[in-house]
Amino acid sequence: MEAAQGKEFALRYELTAGALSPAADHSFVRPKGTAVGAAAVERIRAAEPDVEVSTRALDLASLVSVEKLAATLEAEGRPIHLLINNAGVMAPPTRHTTEDGFELQFGTNHLGHMALTGRLLPLLREGRARVTTVTSSAARSGKPVWDDLQAEGGYAPVRAYNLSKLANLLFALELNRRSTAGGWGIVSNAAHPGTTLTNLYASGPNLGRARPSPHEAIVRRLARWGLLVQSVDAGLLPLLYAATSPEAGGGQLYGPDGFGQFTGGPTRLAVYKSARDGATAARMWRVSEKLTGVAFPAV
């Protein structure tokens, strides 16, 4: 993991979406809240005193927020060399929507990231960036229902999550195809952290519930027993490998090398069967451009 050292190592503190401009020695993190963001900045500065780091406000459940952040960064004019699309919500028990009316998981996990990447494309191209989009092994079970991507006809928490994670993987692969065809100079890949002990298992499953969901308690118990769950630091390694290792290529998927991809060190994985069809990826791309109103250059 030598490639994850130095300035790029600051990204281990990235919370939901982050970017790095090494030429300017500047990285920024998107915090979940002001206090959390300030704490993250201080940890980065303690680890890498020479890095200039700052926070930016971003709500990936709002296309207006995405547009505002992109406009701010474009005005600043720094090329972006590295982008990790990592925000996520998982399995709210009842259907919720984003500010723009999309099903919350599909809208936040996929559409928000695609819109952000599209609006930042000039800066990403200028920086010949690497873009790593965080998916999940749940993408293996994802299946697009093309006439009901927003789950209006029937909402199932896990099914909607699986679709959003499949959409992440399809986006990462299609972005790399289009960059190669169009000469954009962007390397795009995907990674997942395995089963990692974060608040993902509490925040989503408890959304709208009067009584606590059992998800977090189950995962914490498995972690105490040393079964199928790893620490945040371990879960970050596949993401960091995909984002920074010179051996990690575009159009690839990375994740843990252990049993069932639950835990382990970073390795290249076979792209899941659900994401291998280029026509499906292209269709998801077109639909997502239409939904977000963010169009990428034609290739």
As residue ranges, the low-confidence spans are 1-17, 19-25
Order of helices and strands: EEHEHEHHEHEHHHEEH
Measured on Cα atoms, how large is the radius of gyration?
18 Å
| β-sheet strand percentage | 5-15%
What would you call the structural class? Answer: alpha/beta
Largest sheet: number of strands, sense, barrel closure: 8 strands, mixed
Mean pLDDT across the residues is 87
> What overall geometry do the principal axes of the alpha carbons give?
globular
Number of strands: 8
> Helical content, roughly?
25-40%
Question: How many helices does DSSP assign?
Answer: 9
What is the subunit organization of this protein? single chain
Q: What spatial order of strands do you see in the largest sheet?
A: 3-2-1-4-5-6-7-8
From the N-terminal CA to the C-terminal CA, the straight-line distance is 35 Å
Description:
- With 299 residues, the chain is an alpha/beta fold.
- It contains nine helices and eight strands.
- It has helices at residues 34-47, 63-76, 104-119, 121-126, 157-182, 200-203, 215-224, 232-244, 278-292, and strands at residues 17-21, 26-29, 52-55, 82-85, 130-134, 187-191, 253-256, 266-269.
- Helix 5 (157-182) links the parallel strand 5 (130-134) and strand 6 (187-191).
- The longest helix is centred in the middle third of the chain and has 26 residues, at 157-182.
- The chain starts with 16 loop residues before the first strand and ends in a 7-residue tail after the last helix.
